[in-house]
Write a structure and sequence with these properties.
This protein has one domain: 3-Layer(aba) Sandwich (Rossmann fold). 28% of the residues lie in helices and 15% in strands. It is globular and about 60 Å long. This is Purine nucleoside permease.
Length: 424
């Protein structure tokens, strides 16, 4: 999720004027499919525009040279754009989980691309946790956690001994792993590839801004001083994780609650630092496509840049933090998508024949909480397929249902234990 101030919002509107594509070029793949080495996934116009504006000067080509349409792409962003040789492509999904999932699935199933060896770079701006970075910082994630996939009480009506109104499906209190699963609660991507991407991104000379830096200094007043120390440092490249929610949230209480959710749902290993709307949606699409052999999930990367803080500094309200304060992180966050991202793209292209064409083998588990791609998740209740993964063409689905492994979701889930937490 992205928060930006009134001034930044005005800038975003100005930048949202659609990029006018070059004339449709005759594709060099008249009798085949475009097989990009890297597909950049942007979420809204400013995140995309920076690539259109800056990439030509990198020597990697002009993304508006080849413009591909496909049924089901966003009405606002109806093209997948590619450089002339097809090595790098970019698409914009539109904001929110529904738009992101719909657009990526449409592009992948259009029949116009061969994505089996493509590296996916999800690259957008986000709210940043001041415990991990500052405005303009770049985070490369291992996990994304769908924190809004929970029951919720309004905080004014939650039990008096609770610190948050959010609690997992099939449970009776916060900070318990969900008793029932949809499958998208946690998605884990290759830590090995993430670390390579961090190395490439760290070559970037990141953009900063005096106003944004001054805003970060406000967090020094929090005690202990070490708690938010990263907020007052210059932008940097960090390893930490994202949470997905279509609800824009602000404030220390919710920030801490979703830190706890991230820890619990990842078996104590996840570290929430960036909040976004689309990450779980895009990665879930890639899981499903990977089951069918259409993509390689080990080639997914998730990068977010901090455009604003997810909670206020001392003496500022959560409302001011979300809607009033001019944090001035929007422009530098957009800049740093490109500055860090282009280094990742260059690194993959430069090392294509030596490293990346054959793929980078993950050292960790990758996939969802079901173990859909094989292996055993290091979080959650364990693989639903005993480690084998789901078979393509739906061959596993009927077998799973016969074994009684449906999610069991519904409004009544978890009600039976209500008395144990004083709800009757």
């Amino acid at each position: 999720m992205r928060f930006f101030s009134t001034a930044a919002a005005a800038l975003a509107v100005a930048q949202t004027a659609y990029a006018v594509p070059h004339q449709e070029h005759s594709s060099p793949w008249k009798h085949g499919k475009i097989a990009p080495k890297v597909l950049i996934i942007s979420l809204f116009s400013p995140e995309a525009d920076i690539w259109y504006e800056k990439l030509p000067s990198s020597g990697l080509g002009d993304l508006l040279d080849v413009n591909v349409t496909a049924p089901g792409l966003s009405m606002l962003f109806p093209h997948v754009h590619c450089v002339a040789d097809g090595s790098v492509c970019q698409m914009t999904t539109g904001e929110s989980e529904i738009n992101a999932a719909s657009s990526v699935m449409a592009a992948a199933l259009s029949g116009k691309f061969d994505l089996t060896k493509t590296y996916f770079l999800i690259a957008g701006i986000a709210g940043i946790n001041p415990k991990y970075g500052t405005l303009g910082s770049v985070a490369l994630a291992k996990y994304t956690v769908q924190v809004a996939l929970q029951y919720e009480f309004d905080a004014r009506e939650m039990p008096s001994n609770w610190s948050t109104g959010y609690f997992g499906y099939g449970t009776d209190a916060p900070n318990v792993y969900p008793g029932n699963a949809y499958g998208t609660e946690v998605l884990e991507i290759s830590e090995t590839l993430r670390d390579l991407a961090v190395g490439f991104a760290s070559k970037a000379n990141l953009s900063t801004d005096p106003t944004a830096s001054a805003y970060g200094q406000l967090y020094k007043a929090v005690q202990p001083a070490s708690l938010y120390a990263p907020a007052s440092q210059p932008p940097s490249v960090v390893k930490c994780d994202t949470v997905t929610s279509d609800v824009y949230f602000s404030g220390t209480i919710l920030g801490n609650a979703f830190e706890d959710v991230t820890k619990v749902w990842t078996n104590g290993t996840g570290e929430y630092c960036m909040t976004a709307q689309e990450d779980s949606a895009v990665l879930e699409v890639l899981v499903r496509l990977a089951i069918e052999g259409l993509v390689d999930f080990s080639r997914a990367m998730l990068m977010r840049t901090g455009s604003d803080f997810d909670r206020p500094p001392p003496n500022e309200t959560a409302f001011d933090n979300l809607r009033i304060a001019d944090q001035n992180g929007f422009e530098i966050a957009i800049d740093n998508i490109y500055l860090a991202g282009v280094e990742i793209v260059k690194g993959i292209l430069d090392g294509w024949h030596t490293t990346f064409r054959k793929g980078v083998k993950p050292a960790n588990y990758i996939g969802d909480i079901f173990g859909s791609l094989g292996g055993r998740p290091d979080f959650g209740p364990g693989s639903t397929t005993n480690g084998t993964g789901y078979k393509p063409h739906g061959r596993s689905g009927d077998e799973m249902r016969r074994r009684g492994l449906s999610s069991g979701m519904g409004r009544k889930a978890g009600y039976a234990k209500r008395a144990a937490v004083g709800q009757n």
